[in-house]
Design goal:
The chain is mainly α. Helices cover about 60% and strands about 0% of the residues.
């Protein structure tokens, strides 16, 4: 004990006598403490959700609402931007299937500079709503359906019912539905393994499967495989047969990339470079099916290096985020009523045409919006023609269907929810079933 005290006393006097060593020691302790803090906090939500549900998952007892709570840990908190892009690329990947790309092209929703931005905005709104808002209609994941108790937050059910209504206007094969559903399940885990600071655990991957399998059944999709492994095998087999080169794949991919990169300036070749980066992120089979040019190995290496640097910095040097909605398309907190006692919603980000963006209030807001238009971020100023008053979920979709199917949407949403949907979620024009 005496020898240890003498050693500590010697070290203390050495530090006091040499300011350089003292400063370096303090710096070392500060950096080490910060890294330890990052390590302990960054995995906190991951550890908590596994502690809460891992036993129930192993017993095969997870409900869709509990599966949703699990997947939102990664989608809301741990890697929201990456998984948002994973879902976007999942949708993009479906355009490499000729039967899907031909259907999309036939709707004329993607080939028009006026319709394309609304189609993208509405698609993101509907998907983000049923993913982010409580699938059981209540913020308590254990709440059982009660026909006598109206849903607390029925946005997920309304979004699903609205999507079903829009899809019913087109002839879509069950296999095309199932393939699209499989990508929403499989691509997030694939992107997390490649680019995220952490991969998704087996429980999280199964949560994606359980949640989206429930969504698929509510969409009327049949023959959904019983397990995640079976679904993966089915999806890969489907790609081998049906993901083939076709001109319509190329056309739809071109329209989509143009919309995604609208705000990127053409100066100095920035837009052309961004287009090549998008192609570099595609799997080879997808690129070939879309008739897109092969990219240099150096560019692929550059993109992979940037992504790798990002996850290293996030994992070891960044504290976990405090805002869960920073990269999510819709605000999932319960909205407030407007002055008319109605609920009008807005996305958290806008496309090339600012659908559902509030018109500027005040001179400064007007000038800033004009600057955004001048810089090419938006094509036009927000206005009534772009529904600047906001949206109601039962009206989202192609403009020719805007006021159609409202009663049908709420009838089906109540079936999904197992309980009534009442005002202000249900407008007075849509009668409430008793």
């Amino acid at each position: 004990m005496d020898s240890i005290l003498r050693l500590l006393n010697l070290v203390f006097h050495k530090l006091r006598s040499d300011p350089t060593i003292l400063g370096a020691s303090i710096g070392f302790l500060a950096v080490t403490s910060y890294l330890c803090l990052v390590r302990s906090l960054r995995w906190r939500r991951y550890n908590n959700i596994h502690k809460k549900y891992e036993k129930k998952w192993r017993e095969g007892g997870l409900t869709p609402a509990e599966a949703q709570e699990i997947l939102l840990v990664s989608s809301f908190w741990d890697c929201p931007l990456l998984l948002h892009k994973a879902v976007a690329f999942a949708l993009f990947k479906t355009y490499a299937i000729p039967s899907i790309s031909k259907l999309l092209l036939s709707t004329k929703e993607l080939s028009s500079s006026e319709r394309m931005p609304k189609r993208f905005a509405d698609t993101e709104i509907l998907i983000a709503t049923f993913v982010g808002c409580p699938i059981n209609g209540f913020h308590d994941t254990t709440a059982p359906p009660d026909p006598a108790k109206p849903a607390e937050d029925p946005r997920a059910a309304i979004a699903l019912a609205r999507m079903n209504f829009i899809h019913s206007k087109y002839r879509i094969s069950n296999d095309d539905y199932l393939y699209t559903l499989s990508l929403f399940i499989l691509e997030p885990a694939k992107w997390a393994a490649l680019y995220s600071w952490r991969s998704l655990s087996p429980m999280e991957q199964d949560a994606f499967f359980l949640f989206y399998a429930d969504v698929g059944r509510k969409m009327g999709i049949t023959d959904i495989p019983e397990t995640l492994d079976e679904l993966r095998a089915w999806s890969e087999a489907y790609e081998e047969v049906y993901m083939v080169p076709d001109e319509t794949n190329n056309l739809v991919a071109g329209y989509t990339v143009a919309e995604l990169l609208y705000a990127v300036p053409r100066k100095f070749g920035m837009k052309a470079f961004a287009e090549r980066v998008v192609i570099a992120l595609l799997e080879e089979r997808v690129r070939i099916a879309m008739l897109l040019p092969a990219q240099p190995r150096l560019l692929k290496w550059f993109v992979q290096s940037i992504m790798a640097t990002n996850w290293v910095v996030q994992r070891w040097f960044c504290l976990p985020r405090r805002d869960s909605n920073i990269r999510f398309v819709v605000n999932t907190t319960k909205p407030k009523l407007d002055s008319d006692g109605d609920i009008k919603l807005r996305p958290t980000e806008y496309k090339s045409v600012p659908w559902y963006m509030e018109e500027p209030k005040g001179r400064l807001s007007y000038v800033l919006t004009q600057i955004a238009v001048g810089l090419g971020i938006y094509a036009e100023m927000p206005g009534p023609q772009f529904r600047s008053q906001g949206y109601r979920l039962e009206e989202v979709g192609p403009q020719q269907f805007e006021h159609a199917g409202v009663e049908e949407v709420f009838t089906n949403a109540e079936k999904f929810q197992g309980c009534l949907i009442v005002a202000p979620w249900r407008p007075t024009t849509a009668p409430c079933r008793r």
